[in-house]
Amino acid sequence: MEARIWIKLVLAIAVISFCGCKKKDATVKEPEAKPEAKEIREMSANKESFGQTPDGKQVDLYTLTNTSGIRARITNFGAILVSLEVPDRDGNLADITLGFDKLDGYLGEHPYFGAIVGRYANRIGKAAFMLDGVEYKLAANNGENHLHGGIKGFDKKVWRLEDIGVKDTGAMVKLSYISEDGEEGYPGNLACSVIYTLTANDELKISYDAETDKKTVVNLTNHSYFNLAGQGTGDILGHELMLNADKYTVVDEGLIPTGESRSVKDTPMDFIASMTIGSRIGQVEGGYDHNYVLNSGGALALAAKVYEPTSGRVMEIHTDQPGVQFYTGNFLDGSVTGKAGKVYQKNYGFCLETQHFPDSPNKPDFPSVVLFPGQKYTTETVLRFYTK
Question: Which residues are catalytic?
Answer without folding.
Answer: 223, 353
